[in-house]
Design brief:
The protein is built from 14 helices and 20 strands. With 479 residues, the protein is of the alpha+beta class. Strand 2 and strand 3 form a beta hairpin. The structure holds ligand L7UNP4BN and zinc ion (ZN) (2 copies). The site of one zinc ion has 5 residues, from loops.
Length: 479
C-alpha cells in the first residue's frame, strides 16, 4: 500500500485520540490579550513544545522579551521554532500557526464552557475556543507527524515550524525573530525553506474547500478621553461638565457610516477600483448573500449583490468599532459619568494601505473632529498594533500541490479566496525568505472564530488533517 494511503487510513482509525489531544489544547486558556492569562499562554507554549518533542521534532523556544500591556510589564510568550528532517533531496516546508486564542467567557453567550471541548456527535461539531482558530489546525499538523512516526513512514518533505503565542494581539517581536533567524543563514532554523504553509483561516462558505492567496492588514487604535479626576455622579455633575463618553461616542460615530464606508478622508480613496478581470472572478465564485447571512447568523448583509459583498471582505478596507474600555457595562442602572474612556476600533487594510500610511490620516482626522466638539476634555489617539496586507501568486507549485491535495481528499476544486482577516507575520515570511506563502484553511465560514460557540466540524478536523498530510506528498512530487 502506498505511504499516503496508509497515512490516510491511520487518520481515520485514530480520529478519537486526535480529538482528545485537541481537548487538552482547548483546556489551556491561552488568551494573549488578557494580562491575567499570560502564564496560561506560556503554559500552552510549553505544552505544544512537549508535544512536538515527543513526536521527534527538534525545537528551540525563542524568548521574545517583555512588553507593557494593561499597565504591566509582561513576558512575551515564546516563539517555538522546530525542525524535522534534514534530507537534502527533499523540499523543506515552513509551517506557521498560533497557539494563543481570543478571549471567551460563558457569559458572552456561550452555551457551554468555552475551554472544555464539547464533542457534539449528533451535529458532528467540536465546540470550544480555539478549535478553528488556531489550535485545531496546529493539532492537524501534529496528527500528520504522529501518523508518520507511528507507521514508521518517512516524511515526504523536511518540515520547519514557527508557532507563536501573540497573534491575536499583534504578533509583537515575531517579525524581528523571523528576520534574525533568516539572518543566521545555514545555521538558522529557516535555512533551505522552499515555501510556507499557514493553516489559520476559513473556507468562504460551508461547502467548498479553499486556497487563500491574500490577507487584509490591520491597524488597531484606541481613542482615549479623560477629563474628570474620578468617576462622577450624573445627578450632581450632569450638564455641568464635559463628559468623556459623550465626546467619545460622537467621535466613534464619525469613523464609519452604516453602509461600511470609512469616513476618514483618504482611507477608502487609496484603494484602486477593481479591474474587469477581478469582477469576473468574484461573479464566478460559489457564493451568495445567503452564505454571509448563514455565517453571520442573521439576515444582515449590507448588499444583495454578491460581487459587492465579496469585494467588501476580500479587496476593500473596513472599519469596525470593537468596544469601550472604562464604560459602564455591567447589569443594572448605575448613574455614573465615567472619568476615563478608551474607544477601540480597527481598520482592515488592503494594498496599498499600510499601518504607516493610515496612522497619520486617522490621527489628523480625529484631532480635527475633536476640535469641533469644543470640549475641555483631553483626547489621545493611540495606535495599538497592526500588520500589512499580503497577496500571493497562485501560479506556483505550492498552490498547485495544495489544489491536488484538496481534490484528492474532498473530490472538489477549491475556491481561490482572499481572506478578510489578518495574520501579521505572513508578509514577513514572504519578504524575508523570498518564497511563496500559501494559506490552506481547515475550518468553514460558519465556525464562529472570535465569536461565541466557536466550533470546528469533526469532518473538517479529520479530512483537513488528511489534506495537510496529502499536501506534503504533493509538494514532494511537484515540478
Ligand atoms: C485570520 C486569523 N485567524 C485571525 O483571526 N487573525 C486576527 C489577528 C489579529 C489582529 N489583531 C487582533 N487579532 C484577526 O484577523 O483579527
Ligand atoms: Zn483569530
Ligand atoms: Zn488565527
Amino acid at each position: 500500500m502506498a505511504a499516503r494511503t496508509k497515512f490516510v487510513e491511520y487518520i481515520d482509525k485514530n480520529a478519537d485520540s486526535f480529538i482528545e489531544r485537541l481537548a487538552q489544547a482547548v483546556r489551556i486558556q491561552s488568551i494573549s490579550s488578557d494580562a491575567r492569562r499570560r502564564q496560561d499562554v506560556i503554559a500552552m507554549g510549553n505544552w505544544l513544545n512537549d508535544q512536538l518533542v515527543s513526536l521527534g521534532v527538534t525545537t528551540k523556544l525563542v524568548d521574545l522579551g517583555t512588553h507593557v500591556m494593561q499597565g504591566q510589564t509582561l513576558p512575551l510568550p515564546p516563539a517555538i521554532l522546530g525542525k524535522l528532517g534534514e534530507d537534502k533531496n527533499k523540499r523543506t516546508i515552513l509551517i506557521y500557526g498560533h497557539y494563543d486564542v481570543q478571549p471567551a467567557l460563558k457569559s458572552d453567550g456561550w452555551n457551554t464552557d468555552p475551554f472544555e471541548l464539547v464533542v457534539d456527535n449528533e451535529g458532528g461539531k467540536l465546540i470550544g475556543r480555539g478549535t478553528t482558530d488556531d489550535k485545531g489546525p496546529i493539532m492537524g499538523w501534529l496528527n500528520v507527524i504522529e501518523a508518520h512516526k507511528s507507521l514508521g513512514l518517512d516524511m515526504p518533505v523536511n518540515l520547519r515550524f514557527c508557532f507563536e503565542g501573540m497573534e491575536e494581539n499583534g504578533s509583537e517581536e515575531l517579525d524581528e525573530c523571523v528576520i534574525s533567524e533568516v539572518g543566521k543563514g545555514k545555521e538558522g532554523y529557516f535555512s533551505g525553506v522552499d515555501c510556507v504553509c499557514i493553516s489559520d483561516n476559513y473556507w468562504l462558505n460551508t461547502r467548498t474547500p479553499a486556497l487563500t492567496y491574500g490577507l487584509r492588514g490591520i491597524a488597531y487604535f484606541s481613542i482615549n478621553i479623560t477629563g474628570p479626576g474620578q468617576d462622577l455622579h450624573s445627578g450632581l455633575f450632569g450638564r455641568m461638565v464635559h463628559e468623556p463618553m459623550t465626546d467619545l461616542i460622537k467621535l466613534m460615530s464619525r469613523l464609519v457610516d452604516n453602509n461600511g464606508n470609512i469616513l476618514i478622508p483618504g482611507v477608502d480613496e487609496m484603494v484602486p477600483p477593481p479591474t474587469p478581470e477581478e469582477i469576473k472572478l468574484y461573479k464566478e465564485m460559489d457564493y451568495t448573500t445567503a452564505d454571509v447571512e448563514e455565517a453571520a447568523g442573521g439576515p444582515i448583509a449590507i448588499s444583495e449583490d454578491k460581487v459587492t459583498v465579496l469585494m467588501a471582505r476580500m479587496r476593500s478596507s473596513s472599519l469596525s468599532l470593537h468596544g469601550i474600555e472604562g464604560a459602564f457595562s455591567d447589569v443594572g442602572c448605575k448613574t455614573v459619568i465615567p472619568s476615563k474612556v478608551g474607544g477601540k476600533f480597527s481598520i482592515r487594510l488592503v494594498p496599498p494601505q499600510t499601518p504607516e500610511n493610515i496612522i497619520p490620516l486617522v490621527k489628523a482626522y480625529l484631532e480635527s473632529e475633536f476640535a469641533k466638539l469644543n470640549s475641555k476634555n483631553k483626547m489621545f489617539v493611540e495606535y495599538l498594533h497592526g500588520g500589512k496586507p499580503w497577496v500571493a501568486d497562485v501560479k506556483h507549485w505550492n498552490f498547485e500541490a495544495a489544489k491536488r491535495a484538496i481534490e484528492a481528499i474532498y473530490n472538489k476544486t477549491p475556491d481561490y479566496t482572499r481572506e478578510g482577516g489578518s495574520i501579521p507575520v505572513t508578509l514577513t515570511f514572504a519578504e524575508a525568505l523570498g518564497v511563496n506563502v500559501l494559506l490552506l484553511p481547515m475550518g468553514r465560514a460558519d465556525d464562529g472564530a472570535h465569536s461565541t460557540n466557536e466550533k470546528l466540524d469533526r469532518s473538517n478536523f479529520i479530512e483537513g488533517t488528511k489534506v495537510l498530510g496529502t499536501y506534503l506528498y504533493e509538494v514532494a512530487a511537484a515540478v
